Amino acid sequence: MSRAKGNIAEDKACAYIVDEGFSIIERNFYSRFGEIDIIAIKEEVLHFIEVKSALDYELAIQNITPRKLSRLIKTGDVYIKKNKLTLDFMYDAVLVTPQTVWHLENITL
């Protein structure tokens, strides 16, 4: 996927989660392990969010591989340590298709 298409998907994901009551803390946080697309907070819980887009739900969800999730978790750990945070946190995915947006909370390996 091109960077431009990725940015459009991330913008849609941000709009969706803000509508759901989240506050965006940061976008595109990088560490040596990878990138977190969106870091948001809601009800004092930090959410590290991976955004995936595709033509349909199945294709989008298949793009969240165990390797990608492992990198997301390692990068989240870096963010927490770097910022000396003690908040509760979880790892989420937002799937963007031409028809709709899904927010999957607390995804795991």
What do you see in this structure?
This protein has helices at 3-19, 57-62, 66-82, and strands at 23-31, 34-42, 45-53, 88-96, 101-104. With 109 residues, the protein is α+β, with helices and mostly antiparallel strands. The chain has one domain: Trna Endonuclease, Chain: A, domain 1 (3-Layer(aba) Sandwich). It has a five-stranded mixed β-sheet with strand order 1-2-3-4-5, with helices on both faces. The radius of gyration is 13 Å and the shape is globular. The mean pLDDT is 94.
Element layout with pairings:
Layout: H1 3-19, E1 23-31, E2 34-42, E3 45-53, H2 57-62, H3 66-82, E4 88-96, E5 101-104
Parallel strand pairs: 3-4
Antiparallel strand pairs: 1-2, 2-3, 4-5
How confident overall, as mean pLDDT? Answer: 94
Instruction: Report the CATH architecture.
Output: 3-Layer(aba) Sandwich
Given as residue ranges, the uncertain stretches (5+ residues, pLDDT < 50) are none
Biggest pleated sheet = 5 strands, mixed
Q: Can you tell me the overall shape?
A: globular
CATH topology: Trna Endonuclease, Chain: A, domain 1
* Percent of residues in β-strands: 35-45%
The count of domains is 1
H/E element order: HEEEHHEE
Find the structural class using helix and strand composition.
alpha+beta
Number of strands: 5
CATH C-level label: Alpha Beta
Helix share bin: 25-40%
Quickly count the helices: 3
Distance between the termini: 24 Å
In angstroms, what is the radius of gyration?
A: 13 Å
